[in-house]
Amino acid sequence: MRVFMAEDNLCAQNLLKLVSHGNAIIAEILRLKDHKPSVYLLDTKELQQKYQDIIMDFSYFKISDAQEKKISMNMKLQDLDDDLKEQYLELINRFYLLFENIYQYIVDLNSFVDQLNDGAFIQQNIETVMRDVEGKQLLVRAVELVPTV
């Protein structure tokens, strides 16, 4: 019987990469969790009043065009927006990439399971993966990471 984690076992290597990706996402979450810019929390009345036209919740997506026009027509809002971008753009990009990676992880996991069910991996299916101790551990870990991320 072949060793599941053999380098030539494409199924095992894909599963290992998937779990590694999930663990990297968790590491990035742990790195970023303490770096939320306080200005974006809007935890004081002063911050709320100052940034109410710049920092919004998801309702922004319904009025994005009008909001962008409002900012572009007002120099004070433009300056405030530019200051926020200058100060926090790198951190915001890291958060964006984190969310994008979470989405991609779930897409990749679904694709892997579909491939496993469709027979894309020769001599591998859910049952054979679950019969192998390492395969079972990796598959369970891959699924376990979903609610964690």
Automatic annotation (TrEMBL):
Pfam annotation, one family: Strumpellin
GO terms under cellular component: endosome; WASH complex
InterPro entries: WASH_strumpellin
GO biological process: actin filament polymerization; endosome fission; endosome organization; regulation of actin nucleation
Similarity comment: family membership: Belongs to the strumpellin family.
Protein name: Uncharacterized protein
